[in-house]
Amino acid sequence: MSRIELRNVGKRYGEVAVLHDINLTIEPGEVCVFIGPSGCGKSTLLRLIAGLEEISTGELAIDGRVVNDLPPAQRNVAMVFQSYALYPHMSVYENMAFGLRHQKLPADEIERRVRAAAASLHLEGLLERKPKALSGGQRQRVAIGRAIVRNPKVFLFDEPLSNLDAGLRIKTRVEIARLHRELGSVSMVYVTHDQVEAMTLADKIVLLRPDTAARGLPSIAQVGHPLELYHHPRNLFVAGFIGSPAMNLLKGQALECQAQRVCARLAGGQELTAEVVSPQLHPGEALTLGVRPEHVVLGSGKGRGVVSHLEHLGETSQVYLQVPGQEALLLAKGGHPGMRLGDTVAFDLPEAEVHVFRADGEALPRPARPQHGLPSAAAACA
Amino acid sequence: MKRNVWATLYWPVAALIVLASVFPLVYAIATSLKQGNALFEPTLWVDAPTLANYATLFRQQSFGRNLLNSALVSAGVVALSLALSLLAAWALGRVNFRGRGVLMLTILSASMFPQVAVLSGMYELVRALGLYDSLGSLLIADLVITLPFTVWVLVTFMSQLPKEVEEAAMMDGLGLFTLIFRIFMPLLWPAMVATGLLAFIAAWNEFLFALTFTISPEQRTVPVAIALVSGNNAYEVPWGSLMAASVIVTLPLVALVIYFQRHIVAGLTAGSVKG
Amino acid sequence: MSAGLNRQRVRWAWIALLPMLTVLAAVAGWPLGRTIWFGFTDAALDRLGEWQFVGLDNYIGEFGGLAKDSDFWGAARNTLVFAFLSVTLETVLGLIVALVINHPSPMRTFLRAAVLVPWAIPTVVSARIWGWMLNDQYGVVNHWLVQLGLIGAPLAWTADPSLSLFTIVLVDVWKTTPFMALLILAALQMVPTDCYEAARVDGVPPSRVFWRITLPLIAPGVAVAMLFRTLDALRVFDVIYVMTSNSRHTKSLSIYVREQLIDFQLIGAGSAAATALFFVIALVTILYLGFARRRMAEGAA
C-alpha cells in the first residue's frame, strides 16, 4: 500500500518560485492527474515526487516515511517519460531487463517479469528490436513495460501520450486504464494538458495554476473528483479551465437574495436566478455568472440574443449569440439547422446550472445533485 | 571575365597543391625501393625496384621492436586517457557545480604547456619511479599531451547526450559507472573513435619525451629511431633504409587519416569550438 | 540529516573527477611546479638530490643567468622569427588551399585527402624526408633547381646560416598548412550562402565579395586558429632538432632548454629558461583570453 503525502511543498529555482504551498494526499491505488496550463508546474511537481528534482520547502512522505533526500530508485516509484527515454542501443527486452539486472534479481525472475509485461502490452514479437525500429506507440509501450517490470508502488506518467497522434492517443489511453485495473493496488500519478485524458482516467484531479507561486499563493486551484471540478468549480480559474468549450462568463449585479437562491441582473438588463447554498451577498455587489454552453437552452426563456456566428459540427451545432450588454458572445450548443446569422433567438439559463462568482473570483457553493454523478456529496479534498 | 580567371586558375593551382602535398611521400617511397648507387640519382622513376632496404630494417636494426614500442605506448596512453576522460566528462559536462568553469580553463591551459616546461620535473619523477629507459616513462609522460585534449572533446560530446536517458537510468537505480560505461559510452562511440584516433596520432608522433627518457635502442619508439638513424657522413647515412622506415610508419597513418577524414575533422572542430 | 539530492549529485561529480585530476596533477602540475622550483636552484642532472637554493641567479645572476646568455637571446629571437614567419605563411597558404577545396569540383574529396597527407606524416619523419630532398649533394630539390636554371650551384639548405631558419620554416609550413586549411575550410563552410547569393544579385564582383564579405566573416575563426598555431610555434622542437641539431642559427627556446638540461646537465639554468618560456606562452594566452572575452561582451551588448 502506498500513500503519498505532500505537506507545504514548494519549489523554487533561484529566486523564481514555481510551486508554492502544495498540500496533497494521494491514496493507495488512486489515479491522480495533474493538469493545468503551460508553466503551471505540473511536470515539476511530478519530478519532485520522482526524486529528479530537489524539494525546496516542505515534506514529501511515502507510506509515512519522509523521502525528500531519498534517490529515485529507493522510493519504489517508476516513471514513464514523455519522450520514452529508451536506451537507444539496447533491444526492447534489454531495455526492460536492464534495470532489474542491477537490482540483483535472479535471472529467471527477470525473464518472467519481462515476458509477463510484454504479453500484457502486446510486445511479444518486438522483443529483439531496437528502439529506432519501433513506431511511436510501440516505443511508448516499451517505456510503460520498463516501468511495470519494476513492480513499483507508484507509477508516474509525464505526458506520455502527447507525442502520439490522435487515434493512437485514444487507444493507448484505454490501454492505460485497463492496465491500472489489472495491476490492482498500484497508484498512478499522471501529468497531462489534455482535459479528456484527465476526465476519463482520473480518480482525482489536481488543477494547478501558474503565476500563483510567484505571488505567494498556493499553486493548487482545486483538488477533487473530475465531476466535482466540472459541477462545482471553486473559482473562476477552475471554471474557465475545466470543460471544453469553456464556460460562458457574464457580468452582472446581485439583487435580492433568498435562502437558497441568488437573484442577479445581467449587465444587459436581463434578470436571472441561481441555486446557491446560503448566499451572503449585498445587493448591488458585482458578480460574474457562469453557464456552460451545454446547459444553455435555446428557443425559450426570457433572454434574447442575435446569432453572430454558427459552427456545424455534425453531432451538434454551436451558436454564438450577441447578448445586449455583454462583451463576450454567449456560446450555446444545440442550435437547429434552421438558424441563420442575424436571427434573434430566445434563450434560457436554468437556475440549477448557473454558477455565481464574486468579484474576487471565488465561487458560491452549489448544492450537490444526484445527476452530477459524484461518488459522495461535494467533499473538500486534502 | 573575372569569374573565368578564377576558374582557369583553379586547375593549375589545385594540381600544384596536390603535387606539393604528395610529392615528398612519393619520392620517399621511390627512394626506399632503390639500392646502391641508384640512391644517389635524384629521379622519381625506379629502374630496378627492390625491397632490400625493408629487409635490412628489420634484420639489422631493431625497427620491428621500435614499431612495437610505439604501438604499445600509444595504445596504452589512449586507453588510459579515454577511461579517465569519460568519467571526468560526465562530471564536467553534465553536472552543474561550483568551480566547473575554473576547472575547464585549467585543463585547457594544461594543453598549452611547452613540453620542456615539465621536462626537468618529469625527469626527476621518472627517475624516482625507476622508469628511466623503459616504456612506462612514456606512458606517464605522454598523458600530459593527450589527457587535456581527450577531456575537452569528450566533455563537448557528453554534454549533448539527452537528459531523459540519464533520468531513466536514475529511476532504474543504475550506478554511476554503469551509466557512464554501459549507457553513455556506446552512445559516444563515434566521438571516442575520433578522439582516440587523434590522441593515438599525437602519442605516436611524440618525440621530446621519447628522446629524453629512453636511451637503449630497444626501448626507442619510432620517431626517435628514425631521427637517430645516422652515419659518419652524408654518404654513409643509410638513406634507403631511412626512407623505408619512413614509408612503413607513414603509410598506415595516411591510410587511417584518409579513411577517418570526416571523424577527424569533426573531432578537431569540436575541440577548437570553445564555448 | 542526509544531504540533499543535488548535493549527492555534486559529490558524485567530484568522485568521478578525482582519477583524472589526480593523474593530471601528477604528470602536469607536479612536474611544472618542480621545474619552476629548480629554476631557483643550481641542480645538475647527475646529482638531482643535492642542490642549493640560488634565488634569481639563474635569471639575472652576476656570473651568468639568462639575461646575460647570448645563446638564450639568440634562441628567443629565432623562436619569434620562426613563429611569425611560420604562422603567417601557413595562414595565407591555408586560406588559398581552403578556398581551392571549397570550390565545387569533382576533385574535391581527392583534393582534401591529398592535402591531409602532410598532416598525417609524423613530424620527425617529414623532417628526415625533407632533409633527404634538400640534401646539398644528392637532394632532388637542388638537382631540379639547377636543371631549371633557377640557381647556379646546389644550396646548403640546412647548413648555410643565412638559409637554415627559412628551411625550417618551409618544412614546418608544409606540415602544418593542412591543419590551418581544414580549420579555415570549416569557417568558410559556416558562412551562410545567402550572403553570397545576395552579393550576386547585387552584382558585386568576386574579388570584392572575398575581401568585404568572406574575409570578415571567417576572421574570428581564423584568429583563433592563428592563436593556437602561434602557441604551438613558440614551442617548436622536433623539426629543428632533427634537421639542424645544434646550429646556433636555428636553435629555438625549447632546443635551448633541452640542451641546457640534458647536454650540459644544468638542471637549474635550464629550468629557469623553461619557466621563462612557460610564462611567455601563458602571457600570450591570458592576453588573448582577455581580449576574446571583451570582444564577446561587446558583441553581446
How would you describe the overall organization of this protein?
The complex is a heterotrimer of chains A (382), B (275) and C (301). Chain A has 382 residues and is α+β, with helices and mostly antiparallel strands. Chain A contains eight helices and 19 strands. Chain A has a six-stranded mixed β-sheet with strand order 6-7-8-3-9-10, sandwiched between helices. Chain A has a five-stranded antiparallel β-sheet with strand order 13-12-11-14-19. A four-stranded antiparallel β-sheet of chain A has the order 2-1-4-5, with helices on one face. In chain A, strand 1 and strand 2 form a beta hairpin. Chain B has two domains: 50 residues, no CATH class; 210 residues, Orthogonal Bundle (MetI-like fold), CATH 1.10.3720.10. Chain B is built from 13 helices and no strands. Chain C contains twelve helices and no strands. Chains in contact: A-B, A-C, B-C. The interface between B and C is large, with 88 and 97 residues.
CATH architecture of the domain at 78-217 in chain C: Orthogonal Bundle
Report, as a whole number of angstroms, the end-to-end distance of chain A: 19 Å
Please compute the radius of gyration of chain C using only Cα atoms.
Answer: 25 Å
Global mean pLDDT of chain C: 86
- As an assembly, this protein is heterotrimer
Could you tell me the mean pLDDT of chain A?
88
The proportion of residues forming helix of chain A, as a percent range, comes to: 10-25%
Spell the H/E element sequence of chain C. Answer: HHHHHHHHHHHH
Low-confidence stretches of chain C: none
